[in-house]
Design brief:
The protein has 143 residues and is α+β, with helices and mostly antiparallel strands. It has 4 helices and 6 strands; from the N terminus they run βββααββααβ. Helix content is 32%, strand content 38%.
């Protein structure tokens, strides 16, 4: 059985003067503004890169909690940040990489084991698989 979720976007106008909104099926985002000035000039709102980062960070944290549980340990806390790099290339823009930064507190596991489980999980979470065209790096801090 497939689980299907959706997000939606509305846009009107040109690239620089246009405005858009993005929403999610759950309603956690409802007509959240996005646009050129938000994406490139730091104005309030959201943008595709931070949404990708949030999707990857949340998926990775959930998948890692399963890996940790399956290994017989307890994840006391997993704080994951996904930094998405957008760079101008060949007359356009491209996402050129994502840096995952994990701070983990895992009961009963030593640092080497936590890092091993973290690395093992990086390639296996569904969002990582969807983004496999983009290099994803990982740093782990034990906290």
């Amino acid at each position: 059985m497939a689980i299907r979720k959706h997000g939606s976007a509305h846009w009107s106008g040109g690239i620089k003067d246009g405005k858009g909104t993005v929403s999610t099926e759950s309603g956690s985002l409802k007509e959240q503004p996005y646009g050129f000035n938000i994406r490139f000039e730091g104005k309030p709102g959201t943008n595709p890169e931070e949404l990708i980062g949030a999707a990857l960070a949340s998926c990775y944290s959930m998948a890692l909690s399963k890996t940790i549980q399956d290994a017989g340990f307890t994840a006391e806390s997993l704080d994951t940040r996904a930094i998405v790099s957008l760079e101008q290339q060949d007359g356009g823009f491209a996402i050129t990489g994502i840096e995952l930064a994990l701070t983990a507190k895992v009961s009963g596991a030593d640092e080497a084991k936590v890092k091993e489980m973290a690395e093992q999980t990086k390639a296996g979470c569904p969002v990582s698989k969807a983004l496999k065209a983009v290099p994803i790096s990982l740093t782990v801090t034990i906290g």
